[in-house]
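During the second half of the funding period, the structural biology subgroup turned its attention to how the target accommodates small molecules. The most pressing case was calcium ion, which had performed well in the primary screen but for which no bound structure existed. We therefore specified the complex as follows and requested a full 3D prediction, including the ligand pose.
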Amino acid sequence: KSKHAVLDDMRGKRVLITAGKTVEAIDPVRYITNHSTGKMGYALAQEAVERGAEVTLISGPTDLPKVPKVKFIPINTTSEMAREVNRCFEQIDIVVMAAAVSDYRVEKPATQKIKKKSDTLEMKLIKNVDILKDLGRKKKKQILVGFAAETQNLRENAARKMQEKNLDLLIANDVSRRDIGFGSDQNEVLFLRPGHEPLLIGKNDKKKIAQRVFDCIMDF
Ligand code: CTP
Ligand code: CA
């Protein structure tokens, strides 16, 4: 079937997308985060809304403009993202976790700016909740889509994540490549689905990748 003729094929679908990075405070002026720019998540939100879906975008800080007609929920930390995701989840049909979530947070962020004193500084980090894994445990009819960022053994690591998080689709990214992924307008990804052969989506604009993601989901 023609993919481009059907611009309204997601009408009535309630889609939740997370995007960007989460940020964990060290002290009032410093933080832990990652290189995610949010481009992939925002492209997904744009695509879904253009196809008629009702879209909620939960986003960490980015430099990107808001996506018109999308319900926007800004967050900073992983726990804030978890809270907002869980608040929406029951009313959602499709969840796409495109955010690069900080796996750890500082156990006790300093309330005042940390002064440089000794030659070394130790900080204890504690693990954040795995938002997607939790959704995988409690999902009913929702379609769950995750991303995997890997620097090695892409297929094996990604396949394990798909299983462990009980996903319907996992989009695997090789983040060691400079030409794609983080910060780039382009990406090359592998689609993994339970019971299906991996599908390589060759290097393409994030907009095009977003199209392929929803084409795939709407074909389930
Ligand atoms: N994710 C999440 N909550 C976390 C960490 C990750 O929901 N605390 C989601 C991401 O949004 C992504 C998927 O899980 O959709 C995989 O993230 P990734 O960082 O690749 O995998 P992890 O499970 O965190 O494992 P690791 O970082 O150790 O490879
Ligand atoms: Ca991680």
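Two results from this model are relevant to the next phase. The chain has a mean pLDDT of 95. The chain has one domain: 14-106+122-218.
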